[in-house]
Amino acid sequence: MSRIGKKPIKIPAGVEVKMNDKTFEVKGPKGTLTREIVREIDAEIKDGEINFTPRNHDKKSLAFWGLTRTLISNMIDGVTKSYEKKLEINGVGFKCKVEGRDLILDVGFSHSVKVPAPEGITFVAEKNIITISGIDKELVGQVAATVRRVKKPEPYKGKGIKYVGEVIRRKLGKKAA
After folding, report:
1. What are the two backbone dihedrals, phi and then psi, of residue 55, each rounded to the nearest 5 degrees?
2. Contact, 150 vs 87, CB < 8 A?
């Protein structure tokens, strides 16, 4: 049994949740999100709470039970307070700037790398810190991973783009021999 799936989600004031068939629409002060849930899970909205129950008690239904509850909970959190990820650029001459809605990275290539911002995502660049924010947690994480993939941190000098707080395991190189 899913411990997470059993917990009801309380709908905060100022958030409106609608359910049509298997599609959830969550409206809040920051924006609107929609998501379709799998047919193995039933949802019920009453008394300011959302409860989820699996249709069958087979392996697939139980696997989606907690996931569905967490996804809808993240949508509610996203429309009330935004999500953000911070990335750090390390390297001599590595720079970043925001032009319009796009992020421009100068990270040691012969050309600048342009990362377009998807709908609902904003970039903020301050010195060597890039802040990616938006209301969709999944999209914020995906865009952060895409930006990091432009120049992954290397293990010898630690140059590249990494998450703030991420620890890069360093190698000694030729000194170790």
Report:
1. -70, -50
2. no
The count of residues in the chain is: 177
CA gap 149, 2 in Å, rounded: 34
Going by the DSSP 8-state scheme, the letter that residue 49 receives in this structure is: E
User: How much is the pTM?
Assistant: 0.89
Alpha carbon 58 to chain centroid, angstroms = 29
Span 3-80 CATH architecture: Alpha-Beta Complex (3.90)
Which residue matches tokens 């952060």?
144
Contact 68, 80 (CB under 8 A): no
Q: How far apart are CA 144 and CA 22, in angstroms?
A: 29
Element (H, E) at 60: helix 59-80
Instruction: For residue 90, list its beta bridge partners.
Output: 160
For the chain, what is the radius of gyration of the CA atoms? 21
- For 118-169, write each residue's pLDDT tens digit: 999 999 999 999 999 999 999 999 999 999 999 999 999 989 999 999 999 9
H or E stretch covering 76? helix 59-80
What does the domain layout of the chain look like in residue ranges? 3-80, 83-166
Contact between 76 and 136 under an 8 Å Cβ cutoff? The reply is no
CATH architecture of 83-166: Alpha-Beta Complex (3.90)
